[in-house]
Design brief:
single chain, 544 residues, mainly beta, Immunoglobulin-like, 3 domains, 6-stranded mixed β-sheet, binds CU-O-CU linkage, binds copper (II) ion
């Protein structure tokens, strides 16, 4: 395995979109940021130089970082922010991840402009489990706001109101031709009969996405850096945080075809349902777009059925190139987590003058409060007062989560409460979506692990009958899971990575409101089962 070194220079730069120029924080002056491209099992050192005006951190989404939470990145969970004028070198340790992941800032809403692809090619002596594609292309789906990301979330938390939907969406930084401002359109140039591996990343802030290419069949081959059983489809559905590897063959009449995306939106909250376009362009094609008729293959924004049928087709594959199959057949512990968005009385004047209430979000009625010193250092140094370990492992009351909740006690408490797991115990997490607030679906992400999605269903989870329907044969191995609106999903994994690992909704709005918790995995007995020592130069918190 190789060792690579990257330098990320992070500073403000100007970008013009929607007839408007804004300044935003980006890496190496580019939006999206630079691509990391390495082989399976390599180690990557990334020296992050903060040349901007506020602190932030970077996370390597989906990289498990065995025993090395120090370089995982979530701000105030595993590290303090990298302050302006300083730098920090992350050591990103790959193990069995294969395919596509991504990296993004992990503080406030900075990830809106600070993100990029993390491509993991087969090891030098390894092949793809399918015919080697002629070329590959990353496709990053993004949210575009005319306003500054940091200002948006700071104002929203002050006033207690929601950040509205974005002004537009982008594909690899291009807004396409639907917004009426002569914005550029992303063109992927292809050669007739060649096969391409699309590495699709949903980097949008708050939206799950449908994506398709007119007239072309997509063949899904991997998700979240593990291979799946290949299947052909007209469209994909991808949640924020997720990555999907898809083969497409340029086997249609030579021409130009739209690639299109729009939201899948299963919630009463407001949404921007515009279509965003790119072009799949055959080299030497003449004439205009061969297009519109086939846009119909993109599901409607409220098509829950299209989402569920697509997700049900994703199955693990036992090809030798995949991470070793290791699903717990029995469990030591089930953590049953009800997800809610709520509104509670507010006290600060910016909020009181508006509505007297503010939005919060909770897991088991606990709304996460970020500490001002990071949890990992507090845990490692055994210092008190930063967090507690009493996160409730089931909801405070068992009620009908998906029915009429009007009479329900929705008292939410604030806290920095973690779950502690023993080394290598077999864990099941069940996420239960509820009708509280605007309801809707959620993409839940766990750091430090990939987990098996063993079951999902609509309505309330039943702990007697539902486990009988689990798939323990070929469940997908993923790091971010779609929790269906008014339904549940069950995950299993072995807690074999000691450390402090953030878990949160990958809708940025929900995470900022407190839809987060932390899993602390204790060290094992053997010397190679404990957290590595901290690297040199860990940033220090200003509150310290
Ligand atoms: Cu993609 Cu905690 O993040
Ligand atoms: Cu959410």
């Amino acid at each position: 395995a190789d060792v690579h070194h990257y330098d990320f220079f992070v500073r403000e730069a100007n970008f013009t979109r929607l007839c408007n120029t804004k300044t935003m924080l980006v890496v190496n002056d580019s939006y999206p940021g630079p691509e990391i491209r390495v082989h399976r099992g390599d180690t990557v050192f990334v020296n992050v130089h903060n040349q901007g005006s506020y602190g932030f951190t970077i996370h390597w989404h989906g990289v498990k970082q065995p025993r090395n939470p120090w370089s995982d990145g979530p701000e105030y969970i595993t590290q303090c922010p990298i302050e302006p004028g300083t730098n920090f070198t992350y050591e990103v340790i790959l193990s069995d991840e294969i395919g596509t992941l991504w990296w993004h800032a992990h503080s406030d809403w900075t990830r809106g402009s600070v993100h990029g692809a993390f491509v993991i090619l087969p090891a030098e002596n390894e092949t793809y489990p399918f015919r080697t594609p002629d070329a590959d292309q990353t496709i990053i789906l993004q949210s575009w706001y005319n306003e500054d990301f940091l200002q948006l979330i700071r104002n929203s938390l002050l006033t207690g109101q929601a950040v509205g939907p974005p002004n537009a969406y982008a594909i690899n930084g291009h807004l396409g031709d639907t917004y009426g401002c002569n914005d550029t359109i992303f063109r992927m140039e292809v050669d007739y009969q060649e096969t391409y591996l699309l590495r699709i990343i949903n980097a949008a802030m708050n939206e799950e996405k449908f994506f398709s290419i007119a007239n072309h069949t997509l063949t899904v081959v991997a998700q979240d850096a593990s291979y799946v059983q290949r299947f052909a489809t007209d469209y994909i559905m991808i949640s924020p945080g997720q990555t999907m590897d898809v083969l497409v063959q340029a086997n249609q009449n030579i021409g130009q075809y739209y690639m299109v995306m729009r939201n899948f939106h299963d919630s009463a909250a407001p949404s921007n349902n515009s279509i965003t376009t790119g072009i799949f362009q055959y080299r030497n094609s003449v004439g205009g777009l061969i297009s519109n008729a086939s846009l119909v293959k993109l599901p409607q924004p409220d098509d829950t059925n299209a989402t569920n049928t697509f997700l049900a087709r994703i199955r693990n594959t036992r090809v030798r190139q995949n991470p070793r199959f290791n699903v717990p057949r029995r469990i030591n512990r089930r953590v049953y987590i009800a997800i809610s968005t709520n509104s509670i009385p507010c006290t600060n004047p910016e909020c009181v003058t508006l509505t007297r209430t503010r939005f919060v979000a909770a897991l088991n009625n606990v709304s996460f409060e970020f500490p001002t010193l990071d949890i990992l250092q507090a845990y490692y140094n055994r210092s008190n007062g930063v967090f507690t370990t009493d996160f409730p492992q089931e909801p405070p009351e068992f009620y009908n989560f998906t029915g009429d909740l009007s009479g329900l006690n929705t008292n939410v408490t604030m806290g920095t409460r973690a779950v502690t797991l023993n080394y290598n115990e077999a864990v099941e997490i069940v996420f239960q979506a509820t009708q509280l607030g605007a309801g809707g679906s959620h993409p839940l992400h766990l750091h430090g692990f990939s987990f098996y999605k063993v079951g999902t269903g609509s309505g309330n989870f039943n702990n007697v009958t539902d486990p009988r329907s689990y798939n323990l044969v070929n469940p997908p191995l993923i790091n971010t899971v779609h929790v269906p609106a008014r339904g549940w999903v069950a995950l299993r994994f072995f807690a074999n990575n000691p450390g402090v690992w953030f878990m949160h909704c990958h809708f940025e709005r929900h995470s900022s409101w407190g839809m987060d918790t932390v899993f602390i995995v204790r060290n094992g007995a053997a010397a190679n089962e404990s957290i590595l020592p901290p690297p040199p130069g860990m940033p220090v918190c200003s509150a310290a």
